[in-house]
Amino acid sequence: MTELTGRRIVFTEADMADHLGRLGRAAPDLHACVDPERARAWARVLAEAGDVRDDFGDDGAGGRGSSYLRAQARNLTARARGIHHLLSLVPARTDRRPAVVVDVLGGDGLVRRVANARRLTGLSVLTCDASPYMVRAAWAAGCPALVQRADRLLLRDGSVDAVLVAYGSHHIAADDRAELVHEAYRVLRPGGVLLLHDFLVGSPMDTWFREVVDPYSRTGHAFDHFTREEMWGYLTKAGFESGEVTEMADPYAATAPTAREAELELGRYLLDMYGLAGIEARYPADAARHTVERARTVFRAERADGSLEAFSVAYDPSAGSWTCTLPRTAVLAIGRKAR
User: Which CATH architecture has domain 3-250+329-336?
Assistant: First the structure.
């Protein structure tokens, strides 16, 4: 079994065999994309390495995985707008079979669950993550899942329609990012697409991570974000025949019966999402309020037309509820493999 030791995990060959067996029974189409020899070889490497740091392991073991799961359970749709847009970019198959999407940083299966909730058809999502704790949570949520590293995909050459790398791409070490994009190119079918999503260096999200998450999260958060030039370089070096680097709206949102409750709901979501134990310890009575007020000051940016993109709260009379929205602008590299 997977062992937890502090912020570290030990993953065995038996664990990999168990995951592959479950995948074969639950989703034969996704299992067919896996290269069993690559999977076994990587499991051997992990076993020989001894242990690997797991920031998304159980909170009780020093990670922040438990609080991350609470955030998703509390607000499944917090990132639904961005997820919906990303999945809309997956090309439909000409044979009308579901397009296979590998969600490389899939956590507990949020992307697949949002797709199901929004009834996005024509997609078959394989949730992948380097954290066994997250993969177990994905299976518990009914999402077929596999433990693998982003830069060491355990899939057959030319086996999938889309590789999605989103919501945590900055966790991939700079030295491993080029290999990740090469691996994505390898596993894509002709006509497939890589969607590499993150936030730019110097963006409000970068500021949030540096000034709030890193000092107050139980695991810290000292990771480098991307530049447009960096992303474009990865696409061209990997061999993608066409592509672009663009921006997309990817806000956080929380809904409640009153404006104040919506704001506090967003604050609670952010507390759990990033495991901000330091804020909870410093402001035990009103951590959610403090967090949302801090977010209000960080997430402000000037648009190209000179207008200000800022925190907002709006009433929807048709739903009889208030929605608090935290604006985020993500950067997205799209690599397309020739047919």
Answer: 3-Layer(aba) Sandwich (3.40)
